[in-house]
Amino acid sequence: MPTALITGGTTGIGRATAELLHARGYHVALTGQNPDSLAAARRELPDDVVIVRADARVTADTDALVETVSQRLGRLDLLFLNAGVFRPAPVGDVSEESFDDHVAVNFKGQYFTLQKALPLLNDGGSIVLTVGVGARRGTPGATVGAATRGALLAMLPSLALELAPRRIRVNAVSPGATDTSLFDKLGVGPAGRDALRATIPFQRFGSSREVAEVVAFLASDAAGYVTGQDVAVAGGYGLGA
């Protein structure tokens, strides 16, 4: 049975990926740190899904997570580094606390989760990073979110080369506007959603399942010759001049 660890797996894209991979025969472990979303995941996902409360900011949580995954799953075939935060604000309004929090979760937390989980990853396995089209395409107010997600993208080629001798493939998935609870958290109302939708060539938002399908492909043998790539799942957003 293939195995997968998904950080930030209790909601949105992470949750959809956990559901998809489990349905395809994976033994899945996922993380979250919001009590409500953790409770919902434990209530709604199959009993054999391993759900771990872990905060990417806290190294001790990461150590405990890796120990739990080692005990429950043994080895890993997929590491999906999906946890992240996004709190948009103009440059002049970004606090040092918000800046540090973005770095701690989006970059430092994912980096050290990778480092600590790497000994569990099978040769020939797969690492997938969630980046987002905002790392390449500008959005006002997204400087810190884009920079910290973009840090993962910047390390992608070096990491892919470093792990190539073990045949571990390292790729990124970059969702565009995806219909998740993030819109509600950011207070984006109907008018804002309509305006955003109008910028997308497909004239619609993506679904978490559509992103999950790309992650599943990158984890599969069908992508056995794909490494160091960033796959945009964005309905053509940003292609125009």
From TrEMBL:
Q: Does the keyword Cell membrane apply?
A: no
Family stated for the protein in its record:
Belongs to the short-chain dehydrogenases/reductases (SDR) family.
Q: Which GO terms describe its molecular function?
A: oxidoreductase activity
- Name the record gives this protein: NAD(P)-dependent dehydrogenase (Short-subunit alcohol dehydrogenase family)
What the entry lists under CDD domains is as follows: SDR_c
Keyword annotations from UniProtKB, A to Z: Oxidoreductase
| Claim: Cell membrane is one of the keywords in the record | no
